Amino acid sequence: MSLQLFITAFFGMVFLLLLVFRVVEPTYVLLFNKPLYIHWYPFSKKLKLSQRQILINDFPYYNQLSVKKKKYFEHRIIAFIAKYQFIGKDIKITEQMQILIAGTYVMLTFGMRNYLVNLFDKIIIYPSNYFSTVNQAHHKGEFNPRMKAVVFSWEDFIIGHSALNDNINLGLHEFSHVLHFHCLKSNDPSAIVFFDAFNDVVKYYIDPVLNDELTQRDYFRLYAYENQFEFLSVILEHFFETPRVFKSYHPELYAHVAAMINFDEPF
Question: Which molecular function GO terms apply here (predicted)?
Fold first, then answer.
């Protein structure tokens, strides 16, 4: 192939890709309420055996995935650990901490293409609850946009992760705040899908009739009704921890949440 033909073919491919992302995908999102594609990793990375064993032992969601989706999941964990700094405060950062924290974030965002966000750049871990200078109070975890940090008490993170059906999961809760903030500001396809469905979800917090339906069922803990941010985080905890109960009690709300994060059954 001559240089001129190569250049012509190259720019033709670039034009085609631009057409897909600027014209075809917005139409696809509008019609099907999800991005054109989610997973595409030309140079997929695999976890070390010791890292994968942590998932096998301690991450039920991973074990339900198909072989193909497990590969996607592992690649995303590696990308997460490479992007964000883990900082221990009076505690040593371990491989288990990295894998379980990264796995929680990847699980929450598994239906999104652009899952690594720039709202935070570090994970700060304390042994147990810690004193936060933000509001002069003890915390179990927080998302601090000003410091670009997600902070966890490891004791409370691991309790929430290990208890599979109490609907309290510190990792999911704080990462839900991150996702919420990101999708309010971003215009990528996943964020657009999230924001559209979030408008349907938040009606259950704002609308007195819908809100009354929730409180009468008494499925969500009271903290969900603190504000819209906590409402979203709490219902996402319930969505992942007791999905069958959620779906049976509030099927329409469950469908909105599933659409919001483009959730698909793991297997």
Answer: aminopeptidase activity
What tokens were used for 21?
């992302």
In the CATH scheme, what is the code of domain 49-260? 1.10.472.150
Which has more pLDDT, 189 or 99? 99
What residues pair up with 132 in beta bridges, in sequence order?
A: 137
Helix axes 228-241, 170-185, angle to 10 degrees: 130
Close Cβ partners of 109 (under 8 Å, ≥ 6 residues apart)? 115, 175, 179, 261
pLDDT in tens, 174-233: 999 999 999 988 888 899 999 999 999 999 999 999 999 999 999 999 999 999 999 999
* Least confident range of 21-30, 66-75, 209-218, 230-239: 21-30
Structure tokens of 261?
């994060």
What distance in Å separates the CA atoms of residue 98 and residue 157, rounded to the nearest whole number?
A: 12
Q: How far, in Å, CA of 111 to CA of 257, rounded?
A: 12
- What is the domain partition of the chain in residue ranges? 1-32, 49-260
159 vs 169: CA distance, rounded Å? 8
Task: Report pTM.
Answer: 0.89
- CA proximity to 258, closest of 194, 205, 170: 194
